[in-house]
Amino acid sequence: MSADQEQRTIRCLVAKVGLDGHDRGAHVISRAFRDAGFEVIYSGLHRAPEEIVQATVQEDVDVLGISILSGAHDTLVPDIIEGLKSYDAFDDTLVLVGGIIPDDDEAELKELGVAEVFGPGASMEQMIAYVRENVPERE
Question: What is the pTM of this model?
C-alpha cells in the first residue's frame, strides 16, 4: 500500500443484489468497515445489478462488497462485473463477494474478476486487512 493510500479514506459500497432479503451480515460488515475507518455506503435491499453498477460509479467507490445468500450469484455478479466494465470502472474497483458460495462457483467468480470471496467464518480482521492490502491505487 502506498503512502497516498494510507492517507486517504477507503470508500466502500456494501450491496445487496437481487431478491435476497437477508441483510444482517451486510450490516455487520458495514459497521466493521466503518469502525476500521472506511467510508461505507449501504445499498439497501433488493437492488438490481444496474442499480449497484450506477451506485458504484456515481459514488466513486474503491471497494464493492456484494453480499448475496440467495444462490443467484452465478447470474447477478457477472451482470454487475459487465456493467462496471461498460463504465470503465472495473479496474478501479476491488470487487468482493460475501455469502454462501460453493467452491466451484467461487472459482468461476474469481475467473470473472471477483478479487475474493468471503464465506461463513471469515473474520472481520481478515476482510479489513484484505481490503487495505488490495484496494486499487488512485491517480
Answer: 0.92
